[in-house]
Design a protein that fits this description.
Radius of gyration: 24 Å
Bound molecules: L-homoserine
Number of strands: 17
Number of domains: 3
Strand content: 25-35%
CATH class of the largest domain: Alpha Beta
Largest sheet: 11 strands, mixed
Distance between the termini: 45 Å
Structural class: alpha/beta
Length: 445
């Protein structure tokens, strides 16, 4: 018979100061109360939100018995607070608050991907100097414990590449547009109402939020400093429904992916709409769900799936970090995992690969004149640049139209070759308007 594990009574109270009481702040505040007993057992300490810093109260939270300050810096100044939870977002007050907390010797938990991606190198250096921890599980992929998976679960592997749907709002918009034919603006408004979207939703739809998250994932996966400015970023706003349909005819779905890949030249970092074979699990991740596919040299491909945004899922990640830190405080467990990036950077220094040198499969949609010889012109321009055609669809012209849509799927081709081919194709009299081009990934190695 199994011997029951006895729970040890928490001997210490760890005081948490939550700054920001919006969607994630209120979710975190309530989760600490709802799961208080089990968290105390896991943390070997009573985790208590003792101080909240927020411009206004949130009706979702009962703040009775909690000190409430309108000035968030009062929370840092409170000598009883052990851990600051930064949930105000942005990179101005949030950054100042984080630096102040570290200098005051307090640990920090944050969900702020923009702050970590842009200022993480300095934040972690300061935290090391002051002997405190900065945790950010909630910054990437909401409730999915992807940071822990990379730092701990996959620590035995050399990470080869990762590819993820890491913006819930964008994925929600693409899914609703594809399945229900809904309008872009209408779905975005719903994502905002549900608390998924960033304060500035262009961060979601232009890929900036995903770029922040990809920079963080890559720094952990490849042990490199954060390179937010090195992420090639393309959003979903210019995606047209017709390309979603043609991609489906070719057996693909279009997803907004963040991709980080180790190559012979260094590391590729890119966020862009991507055609994925429709039978891949990643192609079937819909709505606000996120998923990250990680390929390690020993384990092979592993997939992590879950809610990428929203109060409860994000609070789940914040509270996991709080339990870790509370254990650290209560039972003196030292930081078990390496500091972000710096530890491995000394072993291996990986440069970023410029986009011109990145090889992908390409989807092209060309409006061509419906007359003999045009197809061979297209094929010649592509083959002269070492680009071979995998499949090709030609649509019959609509009544009254002299142009036909030609959709091409290539084999792997360098971006520099494709840039040159598109320029040559667009210069032809027989080609009408701009060529639409999207990248495709097979995700199989
Ligand atoms: N706006 C983000 C998203 C929130 O939609 O994924 C979670 O980071």
């Amino acid at each position: 018979m199994d011997t029951p594990v006895e729970s040890v009574k928490p001997v210490k109270t760890v005081n948490v100061g939550i700054c920001g009481l919006g969607t994630v702040g209120s979710g975190t505040f309530n989760l600490l109360i709802e799961n208080a007993a089990l968290l105390a057992n896991r943390a070997q300490a009573t985790l208590r939100c003792s101080h909240v810093g927020a411009r206004r109260d949130n009706p979702a939270c009962d703040l009775g018995g909690v000190t409430v300050s309108r000035d968030i810096f009062d929370v840092v100044r409170d000598p009883d607070v052990d851990i600051i939870v930064e949930l105000i977002g942005g990179t101005t007050d949030a950054l100042e608050l984080t630096y102040a907390a570290i200098r005051a010797g307090k640990h920090v938990v944050t969900a702020n991907k923009a702050m970590i991606a842009e200022f993480g190198n300095d934040i972690f250096a300061l935290a090391r100097e002051h002997g405190v921890c900065v945790r950010y599980e909630a910054a990437v992929a909401g409730g999915i414990p992807i940071i822990k998976a990379l730092r701990e679960g996959l620590a035995g592997n050399r990470i080869e590449w990762l590819a993820g749907i890491i913006n819930g709002t964008g994925n929600f918009i693409l899914s609703e547009m594809r399945d229900k034919g809904r309008d872009f603006a209408d779905v975005l408004a719903e994502a905002q109402a549900l608390g998924y979207a960033e304060a500035d939703p262009t961060f979601d739809v232009e890929g900036i939020d995903a770029a922040h998250k990809l920079a963080i994932l890559a720094s952990i996966a490849f042990g490199m400093p954060l390179h937010m400015n090195g992420v090639y970023t393309e959003g979903i706003t210019r995606l047209q429904p017709v390309d979603v349909r043609y991609a489906a005819e070719l057996g693909y779905r279009i997803k907004h992916l963040g991709i980080a890949r180790r190559t012979g030249q260094g590391v590729e970092l890119r966020v862009h709409p991507t055609l994925i074979p429709q039978e891949r699990l990643l192609a079937n991740v819909d709505g606000v769900m996120n998923a990250v596919l990680v390929e390690g040299d020993a384990v092979g491909p592993t997939l992590y799936y879950g809610a990428g945004a929203g109060a409860q899922p994000t609070a789940s990640a914040v509270v996991a970090d709080l339990v870790d830190l509370a254990r650290h405080i209560s039972v003196g467990q030292s930081d078990r995992v390496p500091a972000l990036g710096v530890a491995d950077a000394a072993v291996e220094s990986l440069p970023l690969v410029p986009m011109e040198q990145v090889e992908t499969i390409w989807y092209l949609r060309i409006q061509a004149q419906d007359k003999p010889g045009v197809m061979s012109q297209v094929a010649n321009i592509l083959s002269a640049r070492d680009i071979s055609i995998e499949s090709l669809i030609q649509k019959a012209p609509r009544p009254g139209q002299s142009h036909v849509a030609v959709v091409v799927l290539t084999n792997l081709a360098l971006q520099s070759n494709m840039d040159s081919a598109v320029q040559a194709l667009e210069a032809l009299d027989t080609i009408h308007g701009d060529i639409i081009r999207l990248r495709a990934e097979t995700l199989d190695g």
